[in-house]
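FORM 7B: Structural annotation worksheet

SECTION A. Query
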Amino acid sequence: MSANGMSPEALKRLRNLGAFWNPRMQAATDDADLARICFDRAKAAAKRAQKNGDAAAMHKLAQELAQWAADMERADAVRQGRHAA
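SECTION B. Predicted structure
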């Protein structure tokens, strides 16, 4: 175990995931492309978690996304309400 509590194998998996995703994120052509890549990364992480025994992983991701969307919708409604006056 390392000082952070992870096995060398777990650290290697994290490094490999970073080596896979970070260049894709850095190569994003715009914010929409970056969002797509980040969504793909989150979906892959949820699938991996499900495979490793976290049956609720995809549901947790869906809840996070739904909350983020609701927050954005609420903020947009407030902004539009201010401009209507």
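SECTION C. Observations
The chain has a mean pLDDT of 94. The radius of gyration is 18 Å.

SECTION D. Sign-off
Analyst initials: ____
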